[in-house]
Design a protein that fits this description.
alpha/beta; Rossmann fold; 6-stranded mixed sheet; TIM Barrel; carbohydrate metabolism; 22 helices; 29% helix; globular; 5 domains; 765 residues; Glyco_hydro_3_N_sf; 5-stranded parallel sheet
Length: 765
């Protein structure tokens, strides 16, 4: 069957059939309606590879999954800061889904990295919603160009694994809007994903699956989402309530129990037919979308996709430190130390675990390098020492001594370190940021005999580095996918110039993290008391040192930023600001640089971060090549979410446009004055302060007669007769004094009625 008419089918379905379509047949398939020749479709886990399960799926395992290509995980992909690269990845995954007859790829995951301890952070992009949203939109567009659907997840506030199926994430609306919903909003508006997956958790006490405000009012009414909303697997509470709230498809199945609840609700008129029809129509549209776009006889070249994975991994790796030791030279005598050099950790554990058709490691990849890639004479295999066991965090003295002796005999020691599978996975959170102790001891002991030591890290999220001041270089390849061995050698020997930038802050220690006191919360709730201050927004506001800042990443070449220009220096918030600048490769080798644009808000009474990322562009440059970069900033680039108007608002003031190579390395800046076209309502009450009346009321003159009799309104002499600073004390007391307090500090001729009359007149103006 190639296609069908949704309206005609909907008209022919019974109530029972409509209800049945609102839940799955099994873990991966929608239901069929054989009577009307309506087929099912299959969905499959992603998002950095295809985890299609065979006919007898086990869901949590991967032994029955088809052999596929494992690309770098989301935490690595975000470090590319490359929209085009994410779209190319999406295209490849779309082709794989077509070949395997998968209708919808379950991804990408774009929850914010509130804490570096979240066990699933390797599957999420960033601590910054703008970066996550822009990259995910490119990914979704790439997949959907191939006629395959995506499922944006997990909506919303799934920021921990601890009790994720029941915990209530208690978050104020401004924080939700600015931090935890913005990435989803960007993708919905820019890429129009076919489906969206709701999270398990509650938000402010209400399950995501039955959160009418979240799924109907925000997602559909405000953002214009027209696709299907499905549950995460088992993320269902009350099925009828969820259906009313906009949850169309329950995944997987409840063995027909919830289908019967829907039919019962229709029959007893606690659920209207229009709601059921709307959900059923969305399921039918999903099925129709696949068969209308299905390509027959499609296959894909696994080796070609493996090579793409290698290319992507090279774009994502972040050179954190380099004291002139990288790139390595072919004539140097080098050794590789650490089990990860032969058994790399290249993906995370859980539902996204891919059955890779092959995996490369650094030791074998080094040995197989061609003479061309080494620019001449062929290099023998590098000596290798295991150094530690991945299965246990215990020091093996024999392995340790073997590694130390090997390090003595070479010019450069490359230690492969990182987090084993047991340290981070879906299902549970980390409890610390440390590498296994046996790895830290290994690094320290090797450093005693070999000063030319560099570290290659395999990790899905930040780690502490007690040895950072002593090693010569650190290359973080994150979880780089199945081609990570080859890409690591490419990077170490300069075949590829590192260009990744950190999509998250590496703190000095866990206790520095803004969520430290409220993660993971109690058994019932977790309070997001840090508000909008997550990641670099917090560290900058607190002027705290970090191990490595957001946006940081080094290169084998150098870049010069110059000639920054603004299209306007005075503008309204409804205007668009163009920002241009030039960037030049001033080094001797080809390289790529990510130009980052941040907006610094004017100081004022609003609680706002010092600056926020509002633009980025990755630029490829040959030696001495120069290019011009152009950014466009709109109202949202300058706005915050103002609760008094339930909308985005730009205060009048001077905004700094900051451009640099990381969040803490700003190289260019200019200022633009923005006049707000909006107006914040100001209602005077008896608790309004006297200072605010003069600050916010357009004509406060009527207030003058009332406060003339207030002793706090009469300035004291400059002799500070009540003590040092008494003049300022009185001024501050008056500014912060509620209007009703005039009764205590004024002429007794003032009555409460007088105050109320003045308040009414002020509000009338």
């Amino acid at each position: 069957m190639n296609s069908f008419n949704v309206k005609e089918v909907l008209d022919q379905l019974t109530i029972e059939e409509k209800a049945s379509l609102c839940s799955a047949a099994d873990f991966w398939h929608t239901k069929t309606i054989e009577r009307l020749n309506i087929p099912n479709v299959m969905v499959s886990d992603g998002p950095h590879g295809l985890r299609k399960q065979e006919d007898d799926p086990d869901h949590l395992g991967f032994g029955d999954s088809v052999a596929a290509v494992c690309f770098p995980s989301a935490s690595a992909l975000a470090c590319s800061f490359d929209r085009d690269l994410l779209k190319e990845l999406g295209n490849a995954l779309g082709d794989e889904c077509q070949a395997e007859e998968v209708s919808t790829l379950l991804g990408p995951g774009i929850n914010m990295k509130r804490s570096p301890l979240c066990g699933r952070n390797f599957e999420y992009y960033s601590e910054d919603p703008y970066l996550a949203g822009e990259l995910a939109a490119s990914y979704v567009n790439g997949v959907q160009e191939k006629g395959i659907g995506t499922s944006l997840k997990h909506f919303a506030a799934n920021n921990q694994e601890y009790r994720r199926m029941s915990i209530s994430a208690n978050i104020d609306e401004r924080t939700l809007r600015e931090i935890y919903l913005t990435a989803f909003e960007i993708v919905v508006k820019e890429a129009k994903p076919t489906t969206l997956m709701c999270s398990y958790n509650r938000i402010n006490g209400t399950y995501s699956c039955e959160n009418d405000w979240l799924l109907n009012k925000v997602l559909r009414d405000e953002w214009g989402f027209e696709g299907l909303v499905m549950s995460d697997w088992g993320a269902m509470n009350e099925r009828v309530s969820a259906l009313k709230a906009g949850l169309d498809l329950e995944m997987p199945s409840s063995s027909g129990i919830n289908d019967k609840e829907i039919v019962k609700a229709i029959n007893n008129k606690t659920l209207d037919m229009e709601t059921l029809d709307t959900a059923t129509k969305r399921v039918l549209n999903l099925i129709k979308h696949f068969y209308d776009n299905k390509k027959e006889g499609i296959s894909y070249d696994k080796e070609a996709h493996h090579n793409l994975a290698r290319k992507i991994a090279g774009e994502c790796a972040v050179l954190l430190k380099n004291d002139n030791i990288l790139p390595l030279q072919q004539e140097q005598k080098v050794c590789f130390i650490g089990q990860f050099a032969k058994e790399p950790r290249y993906q995370g554990g859980g539902s996204s675990h891919i059955h890779s058709f092959k995996v490369t490691n650094a030791v074998d990849s080094f040995a197989s390098m061609s003479t061309t890639s080494l620019k001449g004479e062929e290099q023998p295999s590098a000596p290798f020492a295991k150094g530690y066991h991945l299965s246990t965090d215990k020091i093996d003295e024999a392995l340790l001594q073997e590694a130390v002796e090997l390090a003595k005999s070479v010019e450069v020691a490359v230690i492969f370190a990182g987090l084993p599978d047991s340290f981070e996975s879906e299902g549970y959170d980390r409890t610390h940021l440390n590498l296994p102790n046996c790895q830290n001891i290994l690094i320290q002991e090797v450093l005693k005999v070999q000063p030319n030591t560099l570290i290659v890290l395999h990790n899905g999220s930040p780690v502490t580095m007690p040895w950072i001041n002593d090693v010569k270089a650190v290359l973080d390849v994150y979880l780089g996918g199945q081609a990570v061995g080859e890409s690591t050698i490419d990077l170490l020997y300069g075949k590829v110039n590192p260009s990744g930038k950190l999509a998250e802050t590496f703190p000095v220690k866990l206790e520095d993290n803004p969520s430290y006191l409220n993660f993971p919360g109690t058994e019932k709730e977790v309070v997001y008391s840090e508000g909008i201050y997550i990641g670099y927004r917090y560290y900058e506001k607190k002027a705290m040192n970090v191990l490595f800042p957001f946006g940081h990443g080094l290169s084998y070449t150098t870049f010069q930023y110059d000639d920054m220009k603004l299209s306007n220096t005075i503008m309204k918030d409804t205007d668009t600001l163009s920002v241009s600048l030039k960037i030049k490769n001033t080094g001797s080798v080809f390289g790529k640089e990510t130009v980052q644009l941040y907006v610094k808000s004017p100081s004022g009474t609003q609680v706002r971060p010092i600056k926020e990322l509002k633009g980025f562009e990755k630029v490829s440059l040959q030696p001495n090549e120069e290019k011009e970069i152009l950014f466009k900033l709109d109202k949202r680039s300058f706005a915050y979410y103002e609760m008094s108007i339930n909308n985005w608002y730009v205060p009048t003031g001077d905004y700094e446009i900051l451009v640099g190579s990381s969040s803490n390395n700003i190289l260019l800046s200019q200022t633009v004055h923005i006049d707000s076209t909006g107006h914040l309502p100001f209602v005077v009450t008896d608790t309004t302060t006297c200072g605010d009346v003069y600050k916010y009321v357009k004509d406060p003159s009527i207030f003058d007669n009332l406060i003339k009799k207030c002793i706090l309104s009469v300035p004291l002499s400059e002799d500070n007769s009540l003590g040092e600073g008494s003049t300022e004390m009185i001024k501050q007391m008056f500014d912060g004094m509620p209007i009703h307090s005039i009764l205590s500090f004024g002429d007794f001729g003032i009555t409460l009625e007088d105050i109320r009359n003045v308040i009414n007149q002020l509000n009338a103006k």
